[in-house]
């Protein structure tokens, strides 16, 4: 049972802000292959990151439902899927620090993110993809009590633009259970942020490599315990996954309204195309998928915040539906608009951006694997 819902006033406030910032700059940022840092700062200054954070850390003392409402507004008003994917990465990092950080870690790192610095969570490497247990980045302890971290992270959302990152690496001297999370300032000596990858879509969410060459990390900047990285990161990315679902529904809402209006304007066989059942079928299929994704994502958020056993499963379900729904919704626009939709422009851009969601944040196939394993785990626990 869902115990909370997102606040429509917050949604409206951030919708209007994003419509005058993100939406106005999206085309230029796409052409220049960069994160819209001007809009990022304006939205940060409006307090979006503060919404779910405790007041003693500089936050507003609200909940993740408040953030979800504001995020829905940015998605619908900004109309830039890439920008919102970068926001998802930031939100996951804030929740990790809020949930698992020590008091010192929270006091130092969280205010930086609340005030507009860009964060990243660097998990994947060329050899591992979605299988984070195959990472090779590693840290060794130094005589001064610090660690020296060396490795190469690939395909990191916000990587080229980030100021700080949560980096998954190994501490081999810890033994078999050695995967650990490190908080790293990306302006530190030994860190190199690579250029944005030349992706088909989502060019406003720069993704690229982070190279680490003997980077000094103080022991106080290990999140959780040495060897506890896998458990923490799986919980962290659970929020990311459900936010993809919230994003998918909110991003497609205005697009579907425009499609519906167009079906009454364009005529075929002397009647509006909306009178034809095959067009109605396509539009309603998109609506069914959109609402299913929205509500399974709300359910996942509720389960995560209530720490219910099925939370991880629900978050994977939300992520799976997010990718499939974005693909269906943007393809529906292209089909309904016909030749106009196929011409290079907003509809082809939306489709290319949407296709990234079946890969980013864990592939659709990985979500199936997660759900299957979680079903078995819940069955055994019953």
Helix/strand layout:
Layout: H1 8-20, H2 22-32, H3 37-45, H4 64-78, H5 81-100, H6 103-114, E1 119-122, E2 138-141, E3 147-157, E4 164-170, E5 179-185, E6 191-193, E7 207-217, E8 222-223, H7 229-265, E9 267-268, E10 271-272, H8 277-305, H9 311-337, H10 339-342, H11 346-355, H12 364-381
Parallel strand pairs: 1-4
Antiparallel strand pairs: 2-3, 3-7, 4-5, 5-8, 6-7, 9-10
Helix pairs in contact: 1-4, 4-5, 4-7, 5-6, 5-7, 7-8, 7-9, 8-9, 9-11, 9-12
What does this protein structure show overall?
The chain contains twelve helices and ten strands. It is an alpha+beta fold. The protein has three domains: 8-117, Butyryl-Coa Dehydrogenase, subunit A, domain 1 (Orthogonal Bundle); 121-227, Butyryl-CoA Dehydrogenase, subunit A, domain 2, CATH 2.40.110; 230-381, Butyryl-CoA Dehydrogenase, subunit A, domain 3.
